[in-house]
Amino acid sequence: MHKQQVIRRIFLSCLLGLLYPFSLLAQQAVDVTAKADTNSIRIGEQIKLQLTATLTPAQFKDPNFKIIFPVLPDSLEHFEVITRTSLDTVSTQDVHTLHQTFTLTSFDSGHWQIPPMRFEVITGANAAADSAVTLPIGIDVNTVAVDTTKAFKPIKAVQAVPWSIWDYWLYIAIGAGIVLIIGGLIWYFRSRPEKAPVVNTPTISPYELATRQLKTLKEEKLWQQGDVKQYYTRLTDILRTYFEHQFNIAALEQTSEELLQNIKPVTKLNQQRDKLRSLLAIADLAKFAKLQPTADEHEDCMVKAEEILEWTRPKAGATEEDGTAAEKQQA
Amino acid sequence: MENTSSDIRQLNEKIHQASAFVDLLTMELGKVIVGQRYMVERLLIGLLAQGHVLLEGVPGLAKTLSIKSLSSAINAKFSRIQFTPDLLPADVIGTMIYNQQKNEFVVRRGPIFANFILADEINRAPAKVQSALLEAMQERQITIGDNTFKLDEPFLVLATQNPIEQEGTYTLPEAQVDRFMLKVVIGYPTKEEEKLIIRQNLNPEASSPIRAIIQPSDIIEARKLVREVYMDEKIEKYILDIVFATRNPEDYKLNKLKPLIAYGGSPRASINLAWAAKAYAFMKRRGYVIPEDVRNICFDVMRHRVGLTYEAEAENVTSENILSEILNAVEVP
To answer: Coiled coil: which residue ranges (chain B) (predicted)?
Structure first.
């Protein structure tokens, strides 16, 4: 009897020794499930397949513990994977749940099984690998009932989708934004204060300048010293520059004949045309034909130039008008 | 030797008398040529300034009649050469032919041996024929075989170009065009002028034939006087300013013209502008040149000497537009 008891104790000890590692593993085991939202679909309908792994807080905190979700290919046997979500974690005080959802469909009618999903579990400092497997899920894929006694119907035409403004809200918003920006820019450029034009007020009027230059020319006594050509060149240049500044006639770039033609629109100047013609004729001869006019002619030309200046002398405030009129005529 | 004031006065009087034939000549040509005074005036400038004239205009504008009448009025020899694609240099200048009786080669002179040549549609002949003519124009002599012949003076070539038919033509190269003193563009006559042309053609007996007003020797004498026409330094500077503005427009505040001009006037342009201005002054019976003379002939002397860029052609800018801009920017002395 005593011998039997001893043998029983030894047997029990051995049995406990053998089962101990299994009990340890049982402590480490992960609860994994695969759950479909339906077990019956029509061809092409979608199934939501949720894979879940439930971890204990100890497992969740264990840095050596890892669980690897199954990697589903795009196509399983009789099933197609349409979408897959990323891994999501839901934690409570007692349990931590990891789950991932797949959208599957099937185009083969019949009863098919979503195969068991294998999760890889890595534990311990030595990275011992194990796996946990879900149960297969049976799915009925049904065809649509066809009444073969009736005639075949043609394929339906393309159906117009009912129009909704909300389908285009993004485009409308972008368009409105662009219009607002352009409108804002236009408004900004139109309403911004214009820079005040810099008015270069001449310190000296063309008339005064010409009068001074004529006076200087007289004082230089050029023709008295025999420099007749220079005298007439200066005299005509003074007049041409005056016409250019006072009446906007490009007199410096025009020949005598052209100048006489172009002063016609400027009434006041045109009244002195004969004097100007006579002066320019003598000046041209002196400048280009070495003519030596008499002393009286020299004096006479100077007097004519002064008279032209005096006649066309602008009254206060009339300068702009005359110039503009001439400019218009020229244009 | 520098001209003095009294020299110029004498020259002026001399030219005033000597140039009287210009009016007579113009009147005589006016008997048969209605309108086209501008073309006749340019022909006379070419004749007096020893230059040649390139005429551009549609057919039927009395080009042949003008030069033929001019040669009759000067009692000079006239010759017309119709340029065609199969024309050979020998057809223009002449060739050596073999005389069987004398058993030797003799020179047969071409139609270029005349005082006035009308080279009709010069751009229809290939470059070698154009070169033969243009060389004769420049050198005023012809070499056939071992013999060199001086061409008779006055010698004036009036070449024509048709601006509307460009197919199958050989455009004159720039270097060749430069040899023409003037390029004159002529247009249609006015309504009144054309009415007279119709009447004149319907009743040719009514118009009297051209009489010889002067002799070729008178033209040679007139040319000597043209050479003497006084040109002041200021006018020379004005001419140079115009020509240089075509080369470096930016120096004359014409930067906008820079991308439009491929090349400007050559020194030959300055020379011809001076010559033509002198001839124009002579025709106006003056012994000195004034800026008006330069401006008057500027377009005809310069229009074929200003090369346009592709940009200018794309924008329909013509050499006349460019010259107008230049003349409006360069200061007149």
So the answer is: none
